[in-house]
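Thread: Modeling a multi-component assembly for a lab meeting

Hi all, long-time lurker, first post. My supervisor asked me to bring a structural picture of a complex we are working on to next week's group meeting, and I have zero experience with this. I have the sequence lines for every component (390 residues in total). Could someone generate the structure of the whole assembly? Inputs are pasted exactly as I received them:
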Amino acid sequence: MTAVPRVLIVEDNELVTGAMQILFESADWHVAIANSVAAAVADGERHPAALVLLDLSLPDGDGLSLVEPLRALGSRYFVALTGRDDPETRDRCLAAGCVDVLVKPVPVRELLAKALAWRV
Amino acid sequence: MSRTPAQGGSPEARASALEAQLKEAIVEIAELRARDGLKTQFLANISHDLRTPLTAVITHAEILRDGILGELSPRQLDSVRGIINGGRQLLNQVGEILTYARGAANQLTLAPTSFAIRGVFEQISGLNESLLKKKQIALTIDVDAAPAHLYADREKIAHVIGNLLGNAIEFTPVGGQVWLRASLDQGGPAPCTLVEVGDTGVGIAGEHHDLIFREFAQVDSTASRPHHGTGLGLTIARKLVELHGGRIWVESDLGQGSRFFFTVPVVEPE
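Re: Modeling a multi-component assembly
Sure thing. I ran the full set together rather than chain by chain. Output:
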C-alpha cells in the first residue's frame, strides 16, 4: 500500500461525488471517481483502490456486481451507498461482500470516523 | 362513449345493449386501474430521484458545518444549520411519499424480528427530544403491562409510532402531555400487543375519525390545527399496521386530546 490510500467512488451523480471527494480529500485520501460499472472496472485495471464506495443503481448496471471483479483486481473494502434504508437492501449488500452499508445522506462525521478504519 | 340507458325495444335488444355497456365499463375500469398503477410507479420513481440531489445538498452543508473547509462564524453556522434542518425535513417528507407509493403498489414487505417495545419507545422519544423540550411537553412511557417481546418488523413499527407521536406533539399546545403505552390485549379472538399514543392536544371531531386515515386527507379548515407534512402519515401508519395483520383507530373529541391505538398480533417466531 502506498502512503496515501486510494478510494474509488462509483456514483453517477456529480452532486454526490463532489461532496464525497471533498470529504475524503480532507481526510488525506487520494480520490478517484467512476460514473459507471464500465468506468469502475477500467479504473481498477489501471490502479486498484483500497476502498470502493458503491452506489447501487448505475446507468449500466448494479453497483454490487463490481465487488467480485474489483476484489480480484486488488481492492479490499467495499462499502455500499444507498438511498434505501431497508433491511432487504442492507442484507443484499452484505451478502454481496460489502463491509458496510451507508444510507444517503451519510452523516459526515460518521463517514470520516469509519474511513479511518478502512485506511489500513 | 355512449351511456344511454337501455330502454324500449325487445327484451333481447335491451339485454344485449346492457351487456355491451357492461363490457365497456369493464374495459374502462381496467384502463383506469392501469393508469393508477402507472401514477403510483411514477410517484415512487420521482421520490427516489428527488432524494439524490437532496442528499448532496445536506452533505455539502454538513461539510461546511463541521469546519472541514475552514471555521465558520457563529452566524454563518446558524445559517448552515438552517440548510441542514430544512433539507432533512424535506428528505423525511420525500421518504414518506416513497413509502406511501410502495405501499400503494404493494411493494412493501415485512422483515420480522423479536424485540422489546420499550427500546422502540425510547428511540422515538429520543428523536423527538428537542421538539418536546421546545414545546415543554412532558412525555411518559408505560410498558409495565406489555408482552416481553414483539415479533414484527421493528423498523416499520417504529415508523408507525414515530408518525403518531409526531402528530401528537404537533397538535398539542405548549405545556401539554403526550404518552406512549403498550399492553397485552387478550380481549379479541387472538392475543395482541396494544400500543397507545396519546396527547392532551386539540383533539379530533368524531366525524373525522375515519377520514384522517384515508389517502391525502387532512382535517383542516380551522386555524386551530396548523399542520405540516404530506398528509400521508396516518395513511402510511394504517398500511404498515395492516401489513402486520393489526388494526389502527382513534378515540378523541375536539378539545379532549387524542388517543391513537393500534394492535400487533402476538406471533411466535418460526
